[in-house]
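Standup notes, structure subgroup. Blocker cleared on the 26Y input:
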Amino acid sequence: KAAKTQPSSPLDKAEFKAAIVKHLHCTLGTDENKANNHAWWKATCAAIQAQVLEGLRKTQKSHYFNDTRAVHYFSAEFLMGRLLSNNLQNLGLFDVASGALKELGVEITDIMEEEPDMALGNGGLGRLAACFIDSLATMELPAIGYGIHYEHGLFRQEIKSGAQIERPDSWRDYGNPWEICRPESIQEVPLFGYVETKYGESGRIQKEWHPGSIVKGIPWDIPVVGYEGKTVNVLRLWQSDSSDYFNWDVFNAGGYVDAQRENVQAETISKVLYPNDETEAGKELRLIQQYFFCSCSLKDIIRRYKRAHGDDWSRFADQVVIQLNDTHPAIAIPELMRILVDRAELDWDQAWGISTKVFAYTNHTLLPEALEKWPARMIEKILPRHLEIIYEINHRFMAEVDKKWPSDNRIKAKLSIIEEGNEKMVRMGHLSVIGSFAVNGVAEMHSRLVKSDLFPEFDALWPGKLTNVTNGITPRRWLKACNPELSKLIDKKIGSDWPKDLYKLEALEKYADNKAFQKQFMQVKLNNKQLLADEIRESLDIEVDVNAIFDVQIKRLHEYKRQHLNLLHIMALYRRLLENPDYDMVPRVFIFGAKAAPGYKLAKDIIYAINKVADKINNDPRVNNKIKVVFLPNYRVSLAEKMIPASDVSEQISTAGKEASGTGNMKLALNGAITVGTLDGANVEIAEEVGDDNIFIFGLTVEEVHELKEKGYKPYDYYYRDPEIKAVLDWLETDYFTPGKPGALVSIKQSLLDHGDQYMVLADFRSYCDAQIAIDEAYRDKARWAKMAIINTAKMGKFTSDRSIKDYVERIWKLSPCKIEN
Ligand code: 26Y
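Run returned:
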């Protein structure tokens, strides 16, 4: 048992000051007079890191002594954002730090701006992983996040003459004060080469993989501090490096090995995050990245298990559960099988019994272009033994399918891990479902569609295996830290325990009609809008009126998310104003934040179009006080933290059935923004929570989308029947928004007419406009709007990631919290 010592008391202001100054002097080699904000930031991080590491040490000791079962969250992406304010909040030291810095003549908000975002993810999936590890630590659950230590995270976006330019992100260029390198836990990862078949004395066939090269995995640990709790878990990220020693060995072994040998520059494996979100690229390096971090992580887990249990594998599945964040880490399944069968020499059934009790898989998408498939030949080249194992898994699975549906080749072809065709492909989704004991979607509607449309036969074969866990967000970052004014108002009204029990916010509902509270609530919103307006002025030199409706759409740029539906509506409003200068509308500021995948042409065209339309409208005195359009460049976690508290309207307008869940929708509603949205993803559940009067739902339902597709959707019908649609689409073809460059925006029109409008933008346009008119009317009634905003905040309890984690724990992981002893 852990030795009992005195509980360590948190720093007080004087101690904090002393710690900061000490680090200025001793860690950074500067002093109070010379230090710039960057140095102050680093010194402040260092000052709390001591306490963080103390918590980490105690946590690891407690987990070790209690031999706890733990969840291992495998994710190719962790979109952590900044950590200083989060860690201060979670340690309960924010006010102490802010006071200490003030006495040193430094504003904490200024130094927080020095921290580069840790942008090791694309969007929703990566941020979800970050929220989940926050909740896991807060709930004192034994958990490790495993991922990749990308040298460059998601690209930095610049806008030049309206177009997106990608620049490398270098988040660690001046050192990262949070991460700790753990050379003692380096792993080696084999790649390429060939498989030798040996026949043992007992007649057992033994496979030996002779890799063509070996790379090194270096672990970097980021402490994950739980809120108020004592638990400090870790996020372990693997950096690749060359393992020259081995490769010399191979080199010396002779020519025939050389023939099998492939050269990956080992360091390139963890060099850069692939910026594609929801489009599978099938790039060799991506597969190597996936295998690299899975292999390192599994070996790390096994090393830890063996320390406690030696070679006895019988308890492995009791101690270890691995959650696969989408199929990106699915290669871990054959890797564990390889370790158990080839290295530990368990027989197949035993190994499969263990493996299928360890893995659980979360699906995040139904979009066919996002479902990962790898050419069998590519796997064979990089991971020859894994391809054999995948075939063996599939062979045995096909036998099971045959029992259920005898001699049905159609169903076999449909369920097989291998897609036969011109080129044999390995379907990672199928592998994940077959190799896991639980599979979940990320919102009620999405999980229903996973069962009915994506994997219906798997659901029939294994009833109960496919399930739902609705996503959530951490209220510590997404309310307490990013919206301090609202948090303090809530604290005053209902007490301060809501960050750990978000259903407590329901107590606000009874003040929804209270005039005084409405006034306070909306005053906070106004103040937040002022801060954002300042930001907009500074970064874009655009003046916006804080009394206008701040209408916000922030998410990756994707056709299915339909930023262009928003844009067409803006153009329609603009046109109405030009035709009738007295057109009656509440002034609106339309604010966008979005990155497009660098290779996604139409997405980039939409960004360009938004910027061009913005230029025109913002400089047109005829409409100037009614509409402003703002595209804030380089959308990222830290920018979201500024935009979300300042939003009145939250745009969640994806084609029904396409957005698995959405999590931005939850963050905005939590901060009192009203959703305009389709019945898609978690919007459905948000509508259930807040009630029909407090959300603006529009557009086709999933069923209607299906029906319309069935009967044949003809976008031209809408074009010819709705003069406003025709006018705005034709407008795109002129040079009105792109003087001297007619046709510069025509690709959008083409996608909506000639290319069939896959996402039914035109079908939903009119209903979207109507919803916008309803919003306009609602906003005019100040009391009504305030009430809606308050109810939105009050009813977000369900969407804390603590609830998501509770669902995972009870239904899938079966974990217990572990108290941390001093
Ligand atoms: C295969 C590779 C190119 C790829 C890389 C990143 C594929 C997908 C992704 C990212 C997907 C993603 O972010 N999905 C989002 O996950 C969120 C968390 O569950 C959902 O809320 C959101 O609806 C979904 O689009």
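Discussed briefly. Confidence is low (pLDDT under 50) at residues 1-7.
Next: hand off to the docking folks.
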